[in-house]
Design a protein that fits this description.
mainly alpha, 3 domains, Growth Hormone, Chain: A, 311 residues, 76% helix, 12 helices
C-alpha cells in the first residue's frame, strides 16, 4: 500500500483504477466466451447526420427536463422537439435510416410495446425518489434504514421477472405485461394515500405490489418488442428498449420536479412545510397512476402476437 499511496492520493485516479478492475473480468469473459456477431447487411451505411440529430434532440430533451421549472428547461425542451421533428423528416428520406419510422408506424406490436415501456418507466422511476424523501423526512428514518425499506420492490421484481418472461413465451405477452401494468397502477394509486400516520406494513405491501407489477411487465414487454421484428432489426429494437427506458426515467423525474416546484417552489424541506410536501408527493403519485392506466391501454393495443410473423 505504501508503494501505491501516491497513486491513491488522487481520488479520480483511484476511481479509474477501481473501474478498470471491475470491467477487466467482463472484457476477458467477452473475448473468451462471446461468439462473433452476424452481419446480414454489410453494405448499409451508417446514418451519421441522423445520429447527430437524434443525439442532439435526446440530449436537449433530457437536459431540459432536468432543468424544469426554470425557463431554460422549457427552451431546451422546445429545441429538442424541433430537432427531433427534423430527425423524423430526415429519416423518411434516407435509404438506410438510423430508425425506420415507416416500419415503426406499420408494426403495431412494436410501436405500442415501446410506448407502453416509456409510459411504465415514466410512471415508476420517480417512486424511489419520492419514497426516499418521504421515509427520511416524514418517517424520520436514516438513509440506510430507508434504503432497507425500499429494497423490497427490486427484490420482488427480481424474483418475478424471470418467471414472467418464461410465462410470456407461452401466453400472449400483452396479457402478462398488461396485468403487470395493472398491478403497478394499483400500487401507485395506494401511494396516493400516503400521510404522516401511514403504517410501514402498508408501505411494504404497496412496494410488493409495485415490484410484482413491474416484474410482470418488464420481461414480457421486452419479449414482445424483440419478438415483433425480424432479425435484421434486432439492433434497432434493442436500442429502442434502452431509449424508451431513458426517456421514461427522464419524464418521471421531470414530472416529480415540476410538481414539487409548483407546491414548494425552491424552499428547503423543513417540518414547517411537511404538509405541503405530502401534498406534492400525493400529487406526483396521482399523475403516475393516471399515466399507468393509460399504459394499460397502450399495452393492450399492441394486438395479438401469436401466429404472426415478426415484423
Amino acid at each position: 500500500m505504501i508503494l501505491f499511496s501516491p497513486f491513491f492520493k488522487n481520488h479520480s485516479r483511484f476511481k479509474i483504477f477501481i473501474s478498470l478492475f471491475r470491467v477487466s473480468p467482463v472484457i476477458v469473459l467477452i473475448l473468451w466466451k462471446l461468439e462473433g456477431e452476424w452481419v446480414e447487411y454489410p453494405d448499409e451505411k451508417m446514418d451519421i447526420p441522423g445520429s447527430i440529430l437524434y443525439c442532439l434532440s435526446i440530449t436537449s430533451l433530457m437536459y431540459g427536463f432536468s432543468s424544469l421549472p426554470d425557463s431554460r428547461g422549457w427552451y431546451l425542451i422546445a429545441a429538442g422537439v424541433v430537432i427531433f421533428s427534423g430527425f423524423v423528416v430526415w429519416e423518411n428520406y434516407r435509404e438506410n435510416p438510423l430508425v425506420d419510422i415507416n416500419f415503426m408506424l406499420s408494426n403495431r406490436a412494436f410501436l405500442f410495446s415501446n410506448l407502453a415501456a416509456m409510459i411504465n418507466y415514466s410512471a415508476t422511476f420517480g417512486v424511489g425518489f419520492l419514497l426516499s424523501l418521504y421515509l427520511q423526512y416524514i418517517k424520520a428514518l436514516p438513509p440506510d434504514k430507508a434504503g432497507m425499506v425500499m429494497i423490497t420492490q427490486p427484490i420482488v421484481m427480481a424474483v418475478c421477472s424471470p418467471v414472467a418472461g418464461h410465462i410470456s413465451d407461452k401466453i400472449e405477452p400483452r396479457i402478462v405485461a398488461s396485468l403487470g401494468m395493472g398491478f403497478t397502477a394499483l400500487g401507485l394509486f395506494l401511494f396516493t394515500f400516503l400521510g404522516q400516520g401511514t403504517s410501514f406494513s402498508f408501505i411494504f405491501f404497496t412496494l410488493i405490489m409495485l415490484g410484482l407489477g413491474f416484474g410482470l411487465f418488464s420481461s414480457p414487454n421486452t419479449n414482445a418488442i424483440m419478438g415483433a421484428v425480424e432479425k435484421k432489426y434486432y439492433g434497432m429494437a434493442s436500442s429502442m428498449v434502452g431509449t424508451m427506458r431513458s426517456l421514461g426515467q427522464m419524464f418521471s423525474m421531470g414530472i416529480a420536479g415540476l410538481i414539487f416546484a409548483l407546491y414548494l417552489g425552491k424552499i428547503q424541506i423543513t417540518p414547517a412545510v411537511y404538509s405541503v410536501f405530502l401534498k406534492g408527493v400525493r400529487g406526483c403519485f396521482i399523475v403516475f397512476t393516471v399515466l399507468c392506466i393509460l399504459g394499460i391501454f397502450a399495452s393492450l393495443s399492441r394486438g395479438s402476437m401469436r401466429g404472426k410473423p415478426a415484423g
